[in-house]
Amino acid sequence: MSAKKKSQNLIARLKYGSGKNSSTQLTRIINEAKEVFGKQFFNAKQFYVPSYGGPYVLNLIGKERKQEIFASEQNSMYNNYTMEMLEDTDIKMNLFVDDYENGEIEGLDGSLPTNTLSNTAYEIKIGNWKKIVYPTIIKRTNVKLNLDKQVWVLPTKWWFSDKEELVEFRKLLKTIGFKKIIILPTDTFKDEGIPYLECCAIFCEKDYSGPITVETRKGTTYQYNYSDKDVYYFGDNSAETDILYRCLELNDPYHWETPKNPDLYKSQARKRNEYYSKKTNGTTIKVVDLIQKDGLKIEEINESEVSDKKNINTYRLALTTLPGGTNYGQGLGYVQIFEPGMVGTTKHRVAVLKGVKSMKEAKKHLDYLLKIGENIKNKTSDSPTINRPQMKAVLKKDTYEREFGKIK
Fold first, then answer.
1. Nearest CA to 347 among 322, 323, 320?
2. CATH code, domain with 22
3. What pairs with residue 129 in β-bridges?
4. DSSP state of 111
5. Residue 40 and residue 103 in one domain
6. Nearest to residue 390, comparing CAs of 256, 293, 294, 258?
7. How many CA atoms does the CB half-sphere of 93 hold within 13 Å?
8. CA 309 to chain centre
9. 224 lies in the same domain as 337
10. Are residues 28 and 176 in the same domain?
11. Which of 185, 201, 284, 341 sits 20 to 30 Å CA-CA off 103?
12. What residues make up the domain containing 377?
């Protein structure tokens, strides 16, 4: 079998055709489905795998189900190759092409009880932009089929997003019996050539309306009632989850603003912005170029070239534009303190520390922010950096300590 160069990624996946090298996490999810729903999960009258992602998923499911499996994928060539990869197996497969949004779910009987398990597509590229599709896939599958039990592998970073389609998706989950979630390790799909991915597995059962069982990355489990929640936080235990929601309820975060001063340099080549002169003449102001792990990189700029001097006489916390940084040790990226006399640029976010009159006191806020920011990041997402919606639950230091006590 041969393929054009652009399709080599499909050929590279041939080794998964036998199912011997499939992800251990997918095996775990399949076993968990049998634990949560019973061993008959794969023996439903119909079984559908929307957006199957690769032949290894189908092989794993095929080992559990001896009857026909319906499966769809977006790319027709991908389907053709998958058929060839599976042609020497005894799996009964009905594959069809699906556009994820408006296409028909071919060959399935919408009246029959149907189960599903899918490592569904998260987003697709349309022209030069990406579109989130997993909420659409899940909603459409539930509308067109009589789903009884369903398992989906999903990203974790959008559980608290305020994007309209994700707000609606979270509402949908409450109507289809959201029963359990497993927060999966970031190396879940390393065997498939994806070394880092934030994901989870959710289990839904028709007519279920009880608390959700949360299984953390540490392997511990607890139950929590999310029925009145608009966003989902998953602490290490129910008490910690309560704290996260209380932080969100108190709604007293640091007020982050972006300075209007243009960046000092353009692109990674660090070409100096023509907005700024190369030489100083007369009165100067300290402009922060970079926020780094070990401090700030500062340049003296002509005062006349600095247009935004707001809060220049205060102590401020400062970080790279959210979400920022790629430092896996700090959920907030690099965070430092702007002393009086310093200003930032459009690449920074700054928050005034009201009432703070010394560097010693400012550092207490810095230490607090790193601790609470890292904690909230770890309990809501596997992302290496904290995301903008998560920052809503990062309270001001004084508010947090008044509610929960001093951070040790």
1. 320
2. 3.40.50.150
3. 126
4. T
5. yes
6. 256
7. 28
8. 35
9. no
10. yes
11. 201
12. 265-404
Determine if the pTM surpasses 0.70: yes
Q: Tell me the helix, strand and coil percentages in the chain, rounded to 5.
A: 30, 25, 45
Helix 397-404 vs helix 359-380: crossing angle, to nearest 10: 70
Same-domain pairing of 299 and 220: no
* Residue bearing tokens 């305020």: 162
Regarding whether 198 and 340 lie in a shared domain, the answer is no
Q: Please state, as a whole number, how many other Cβ atoms lie within 10 Å of the Cβ of residue 33.
A: 23
**H or E element: which one contains 136?**
helix 134-144
One domain for residues 226 and 276: no
Same domain membership, residue 223 and residue 155: yes
CA 304/CA 80 separation, integer angstroms: 65
Residue 130: count of CB within 10 angstroms of its CB:
11
Identify the residue whose tokens are 């930032």.
Answer: 344
Alpha carbon dihedral 127, 99, 143, 119, in 10-degree steps, equals -90
Which amino acid is it at 75?
N
Starting at the edge strand that comes first in sequence, how are the strands of the sheet with 295-302 ordered? 295-302, 284-292, 342-343
Amino acid code (one letter) for 275? Y
One digit per residue, the tens of pLDDT, for the chain of length 408 reads: 222 333 434 434 444 444 445 577 888 999 999 999 999 999 999 999 999 887 878 888 988 998 999 999 988 888 887 887 777 678 888 999 988 877 788 899 999 999 999 999 888 877 788 888 999 999 999 999 999 999 999 988 778 778 888 899 999 999 999 999 999 887 777 766 677 777 899 999 999 999 999 998 888 999 999 999 998 988 889 998 998 899 889 989 899 899 999 999 998 888 999 999 989 998 999 999 999 888 999 999 999 999 999 999 999 999 875 543 333 334 566 889 999 999 999 989 899 999 999 999 999 999 988 887 766 666 655 555 566 667 777 899 999 999 988 876
Asked which of 214, 232, 250 is the last residue of a domain, the reply is: 232
Look at the alpha carbons of 60, 222, 189, 99 in this order and tell me if their dihedral is positive or negative.
positive
Q: Are strands 46-49 and 113-118 parallel, antiparallel or unpaired?
A: parallel
Is the domain of 49 the same as that of 161?
Answer: yes
3-state secondary structure of 405: coil
